[in-house]
Amino acid sequence: MASKLLGNYPPELSQEEEHYLLSNLKDWSIAHGLAVRPAPSFIQPSQDPSGVLATTAPVTVFPSLFPGSCFKEGLAIQNAYNKLYSAIARDEAWLQSIVEELLGIDDFVAKLWQTHLTVKKQGYAQDLSLGLFRSDYMVHQDPSEANPTTGLKQVEFNTIASSFGGLSSQVSALHRFLFELDAYPSSTSSIIKTEALQQSRSASLLAKGLATAHKAYVSSSANLPLCVLFIVQDPERNVFDQRHLEYALLAEHRVRSFRLPFGETLSHTRLGSDRTLLYTPPNSPSTTYEVTTVYFRAGYSPDDYPNDDDWSARLHLEKSRAIKCPSILTHLAGSKKVQQVLATPHSPHLKRFLPDEKAAARVLATFAPIYPLDNTQAGKEARKLATDPASASRYVLKPQREGGGNNIYRKAIPPFLENLPETHWPAYVLMEMIEPPPLRNAILRNGELQRGGVICELGVYGVCLWRDASGPEQKGEILESWEAGYLLRTKGDQSEEGGVAAGFGAVDSCCLV
Ligand code: ADP
Ligand code: MG
Ligand code: MG
Prior knowledge:
The protein has helices at about 5, 15-30, 70-75, 80-90, 90-105, 105-120, 165-180, 200-215, 240-255, 265-270, 310-320, 330-335, 335-340, 350-355, 355-365, 375-385, 390, 415-420; strands spanning about 35, 55, 60, 65, 130-140, 150-160, 225-230, 255-260, 270, 275-280, 290-295, 325, 370, 395-400, 410, 430, 440-445, 450-465, 475-490, 505-510, 510. With about 525 residues, it is of the alpha+beta class. The chain has a domain at about 5-200 and about 335-370 and about 435-510: D-amino Acid Aminotransferase, Chain A, domain 1 (2-Layer Sandwich), CATH 3.30.470. Strands 3, 5, 6, 17, 18, 19 and 20 form a 7-stranded antiparallel sheet that branches. Strands 7, 8, 9, 10, 11 and 12 form a 6-stranded mixed sheet that branches. Strands 13-16-14-15 form a 4-stranded antiparallel sheet, with helices on both faces. Strand 5 (about 130-140) and strand 6 (about 150-160) form a beta hairpin. The mean pLDDT is about 95. The structure holds adenosine-5'-diphosphate and magnesium ion (2 copies). Adenosine-5'-diphosphate binds next to strand 5, strand 6 and strand 14.
C-alpha cells in the first residue's frame, strides 16, 4: 500500500459529498440505534421533559486505518486473557495479597473487599461466575528504533461493565453501509474494501455469554419464570448500547431480561431462603422472577454508592445464588494494581495463571511498562520518575478506578503528587504512555464535524464462564470461553482521555491496512 495514499486518508470532501455522506450517516444511525440520549449541555432537560429524544452517538465518519497484524493478534490472544483473568478471580489468596496494600488508603477497594469477606463468611451460594471482559490496546510505535515496529500494547483490562459492545456492532455496520452506498469518495477505493472492513459481532456474542450463564444456572424448586437482571445507572445516556444486548438476548436466545437501577435494588429484589434472588417488576407486582444472572452496568464507581444502602445492595446481590457478572473478586481482578503486578519484569505471576508458555509469551508482549509507587526498589525509582517534570511527561498516573476521567497525565503528575500525602501514593500505578502512530479522521458529535489528528484504542471483548474453586485442592474450571468481537474508540489527539460517554471519544470501526 503506497503510504502516500494512506497519508491522504481520509480525503477532503466537497460540500456535496459531505452533505450526502452525513445525511446518510445521521439517518442510518438513528434507524439502527447507533444512538445516545442527548447530553444536558446539548439539549436542556427542560426542552425534553419526557425524555424522548435521542441523537447519533459520537462516531467517526470514516473507518480508521488499523494494522491488520495488530488487529488479528488482539483477537487471537483474547482466549488467553480470558484464562488469565478468570484464574486470577479464582485465586482469592493471591488477590488478597495484592489488595492488602490498598486497604488502608483506598476506601472503595476496602469496601469491595469487606463485602466479599462478609459473603465468604456465610459461604458463597453460587460457584459459577461470568466475565464479559474487554481488553483495551493501542498500537505502539517506538520512535527511538531505527525501523520502528508496530505492536499492540495493552491500556487496561476491564472486568466490570465493559461497555460499547452494542454500539460497536452498529458502527461497523454503519461504515460498511456507507461503503456499499458509494458514499465514500472514489479516491478511497484502494483502501476501503469489503475485506478490509471488520464487522464486530460483539452485541450478539456478549448476549450469547449472558444466555450461556442463564442456561447453566440451576433453578431453585420454586418453579418461577427466570430472568437476567441488568443493574444500571439512572439516568443512563448510553442506554441503547445496553438495549442492543437485551434485544439480542430475547431475539436470539428467548431470554427475558429486566433493567433495574442500582439504587432500587433493595426495594425490588429479595432473597429466598436458599438465597435465590427474586425480582418483582414494578409494572407487574403479581409476577416474581428468579434471577439467574446479575449483569452489572453500574457499581464500578464510588459515585454509584452515595448511601450505605448502596453497599447493602451490593452485598445483597453478591450473597445471592444468582450468577454474578462480575463477582466482587472478578471486579477486583480488573484493578490497575493487578495489571501492574502482572507486568512486573521477570515476575512469576503470569506463568502461575497462564502455564501455557506460548500463550503467556504473546500476552506478555502486549504489556507496557507499569510501576508501583510503593516502598519497593522499583517503587522508589518510579517515584523519582513521577516527581521530575522532565520524565513525568512520558507517563500517566492511574488510581484503582473505572469509567474514565480518573487519570493524571504527564506534566500534571508532579504537582498532583506534591498535594497527596506520600502514604497514599501506593494507591496509584505509573504507566508509560503508549504513543500510537499519527492518524487522521473526522468525528461527528452533536451534529458538529471535528477533523484532525486522532488516536485509536482497540477493545477486544471476551466471554468466560467458569466454576470457582470449591475447596483448598480444587482450582475450579473454565466451562466456556470465546473472543466476542471488538470495539474501536477514537479521540482527537489533543485529548488525553478517550471516554465516549465522558464526551471525549467516538465509536469507530477498523479498516485493516
Ligand atoms: P479507565 O478504566 O478509567 O477507562 P484507562 O486505563 O482506560 O482507565 O484510561 C483512560 C484513558 O486514558 C484510555 O482510554 C486512554 O485514552 C488513556 N490512557 C490510559 N493509559 C494510557 C497509556 N498508557 N498510554 C496512552 N494513553 C493512555
Ligand atoms: Mg477501565
Ligand atoms: Mg479504559
